[in-house]
Amino acid sequence: MSGEHQRAGTHDRQGRVDGDLVDREARDQSRVDAVLDDFFRLAKRRAESVGYRYVDLWKVLERNTSGGKRFRPRMVFTTYTALGGRDDEAAARVGAAFELLHTALIVHDDVIDRDFSRRGIPNVSGSYRDEATTAGIPTPTAEHRGMSAAVIAGDLALTGASRLLLQVPCDGPVQARLLDLLDEAVFVSAGGEMIDVELSLSDDLPTVDEILDMERAKTAVYSFEAPLQAGAVLAEAPEAVVRALGEFGREVGVAYQVVDDLLGVFGTQSDTGKTVLGDLREGKRTVLVAHAATTDDWFGIRPFIGKADLSEAEAEVVRGRLEACGARRFAEQLVEDHARRALAVLDGPDVGEALRDALAPLVQVVLERVR
Amino acid sequence: MSGEHQRAGTHDRQGRVDGDLVDREARDQSRVDAVLDDFFRLAKRRAESVGYRYVDLWKVLERNTSGGKRFRPRMVFTTYTALGGRDDEAAARVGAAFELLHTALIVHDDVIDRDFSRRGIPNVSGSYRDEATTAGIPTPTAEHRGMSAAVIAGDLALTGASRLLLQVPCDGPVQARLLDLLDEAVFVSAGGEMIDVELSLSDDLPTVDEILDMERAKTAVYSFEAPLQAGAVLAEAPEAVVRALGEFGREVGVAYQVVDDLLGVFGTQSDTGKTVLGDLREGKRTVLVAHAATTDDWFGIRPFIGKADLSEAEAEVVRGRLEACGARRFAEQLVEDHARRALAVLDGPDVGEALRDALAPLVQVVLERVR
User: Fold this and answer.
1) Which of A324, A50, A276, A280 is CA-nearest to residue B196?
2) What is the mean pLDDT of residues A62-77?
3) Best to test chain B binding among A56, A58, A145, A159 (most B CBs inside 10 Å)
4) Is the pTM of this model over 0.90?
5) Which residues of chain B have a CB within 8 Å of the CB of A145?
6) A344/A355 Cα distance (integer angstroms)
7) Mean of all residue pLDDT scores within chain A
8) What are phi and psi of A295, to 5 degrees?
9) B195–A50: do the CB atoms touch at under 8 Å?
10) Cβ B79 vs Cβ B28: under 8 Å
11) B145 in contact with A, Cβ within 8 Å
12) To the nearest whole angstrom, how far is the Cα of B22 from the nearest Cα of chain A?
């Protein structure tokens, strides 16, 4: 998930900015940050007994966990608060667990993608690689050091996520449900990652449905479904509500991912925080590409997909052809369909007014990203 | 840890094979296998909903978890049974958790070491690489596919370990202690792995103490200390016993690792399950090398350490010099010192006779490996 929006839940249904909400979000975020600060402070202290080199790894991991928009914790707080939850410290702990899970998954995703930076800043691999090259170590060795550190750091973040959930002050059955949700999030996102690896290696282009299933598994479950449901579980909401939030999360999560695909080609750098040539240059399997491959225009698009030195002028040509063949419109329609279905879930019998009012703006924000 | 012995606890103090013990160990092992079979059966079924490619990953991970000597589960059972524990199903679950942790750590260790096989059999990376090369995919891409699959598989095994602990039927405080032990094992072994990465990159040779600390952290804690303590915690043994088992595990674990260093140079292939040129060729930082570096003979040894094409004849020269400079004797003395200290812990006030009788043979087995 790239270019995470910064203001989910800060608009009410009429689109007005709600000052109270902004204040509450800032307060929730600082609670999450405080939980993570404590977590890392303790880990760094524990690491001292193993060795200073290990303390360094924790410092790098901490840097890679900070500065995010705390998107997943916000999902937790949104449902928790709307469902009447009042123990903000507990919610912050659950939110921090999902934030650490996010760190774990992107750190290992970067290993798999051989990426040494994220949003222009060195990631774990990049920090360790750069330090080594500065010390005169040859690049392949330095890169390998970076990857090794990142494999270990991801393991620590993954373990840390379940540790944080174990420390949530709540009843045993609630805790068990929270741990189940985290487990499901890890299980499904690992599957999505594996399928992404395989799809990107295959000569055959995947179908639109394969792309959507992969994107849902890799990102939407742990970013939307699971944290939205976790907030409800922590608030001890009825099972029907938790189930409805799963459906809502799936729809809005898939919409979000398709928006990402669109922004990766048609967005501006400020939308996405990364070059908008990246997806095309790396030949990323997206809904756009999968749809274009089913059209007669594909022969004129294919040569540019995965062209490592694609120029901005060539990218403009591809954009024009992706538009002409209907791929852009198709993807936009997908976003709208899933957004509509997400809103329909909110209008269902199991979702009360407070929850609906809290979640509808999220759909708006997703739609606005692409408009 | 390589060349794990197959018969810990199958000798009594006089060295006679105890038939009852062999039967019990076989029974315990099949209980652990049954827990793991269930775990993987469920995971493969769950994976179907994500995609057949994900089911394949679980199958490969399962293969990489089977066939081991179930060393860590045996540590759990040894203390649990000696301390009066009778719920063998619970112990099997705890043992299986440590077995999965072991899988997770070696799968990621192999990624870090860029190893594609373990004991001559393709590991997770190797299976995925080989399948890809057979399909005509170029080696670098195939290797990268292998590494990617292994990063994901290790994450799944790591998560699986704590899931299994969460399913142990026991009181809340006991479960919390078990989870703490697992967490400590992950935390410390990750630190050991990181320090191993750093030591192997450094031009400066580490000291003997640095090697011992690294080996203890990387392997001894999760292989000895934590599972021995977990058996005691599950048996609800007094805190003093759990502490003594930590000390015992540390001593015997370090002895075991130094034996590994010795066998890696002076052992036979049947001792270690791997070529005895491997450690020398890869320039592995061992107690032998660290000690030799402090002697005047080092200039005649150094050129061979890390020589990728070291011949058997050259290895014989190195062996002779490691012996002449006293490194072999030094390492053997270290093993004996730690073994003696391990036995001294067993003679302490907190360890009862049954536990002493169950654990003393473990020290013998470690000593016998090197004699």
Assistant:
1) A50
2) 91
3) A159
4) yes
5) 197, 201
6) 13
7) 91
8) -105, 165
9) yes
10) no
11) yes
12) 36
Residue B1, pLDDT above cutoff 80? no
Tell me which of A19 and B280 has the higher pLDDT: B280
Rounded CA separation B277/B271 (Å): 13
Higher pLDDT, B261 or A277: B261
Q: Return the pLDDT at B368.
A: 82
Q: Which whole number is the average pLDDT over A205-220?
A: 94
Q: Can you give the pLDDT at residue B4?
A: 46
3-state SS assignment for residue B285? coil
Burial string for A306-338 (b: 16+ CB within 10 Å, else e) reads ebeebeeebbeebbebbeebebbebbbebbeeb
Determine the average pLDDT of the residues in B335-354: 95
Boundaries of every domain in chain A: 19-370
Nearest to A65 by CA among A199, A158, A132: A158
Distance of CA A2 to the CA centre of its chain: 7
Picking from A285, A245, A295, the residue whose alpha carbon sits closest to that of residue A265 is A285
In sequence order, what E strands does chain B have?
117-118, 121-122
Q: Which are the contacts of A147, defined by CB distance < 8 A and separation ≥ 6?
A: A111, A114, A125, B111, B112
A141 at the B interface (CB within 8 A)? yes
The sign one gets for the Cα dihedral B302, B303, B305, B306 is positive
Q: How confident is the model at residue B9 (pLDDT cuts 50, 70, 90)?
A: very low
Task: Tell the residue number behind the tokens 């109270």, with chain if given.
Answer: A20
CA distance A157 to chain B (A): 10
Quote ipTM for the complex: 0.92
Q: How far apart are CA B280 and CA B309, in angstroms?
A: 10
Do B195 and A112 count as a contact with CB atoms less than 8 A apart? no
Residue A81, amino acid: T
* Separation CA A81–CA A69 (nearest Å): 19
In angstroms, rounded to a whole number, what is the distance separating the alpha carbons of residues B231 and B245?
Answer: 10
pLDDT, position A23: 84
Tokens 């066998």 -> residue: B263
- CATH class of the domain whose range is A19-370: mainly alpha
What is the helix (H) or strand (E) element at residue A121, kind and residue range? strand A121-122
In the block, tokens 């199903």 appear at: B89
| 8 Å CB contact between A224 and A266 | no
B173-207 per-position pLDDT tens digit: 999 999 999 999 999 999 999 999 999 888 888 99
Nearest residue to B283 (alpha-carbon basis) of B206, B195, B370, B193 = B206
pLDDT at A45 over 90: yes
**Angle (CA) A149 A130 A69, round 5°:** 70
Query: Is the pLDDT reported for residue A200 higher than 90?
Result: no
The pair of three-digit structure tokens given for residue A41, joined into one six-digit string: 């402070």
CB < 8 Å from A in window 208-267 of B? 213-214, 217
What are the DSSP calls for A227-249, one per residue?
HHHHHHHHTT--HHHHHHHHHHH
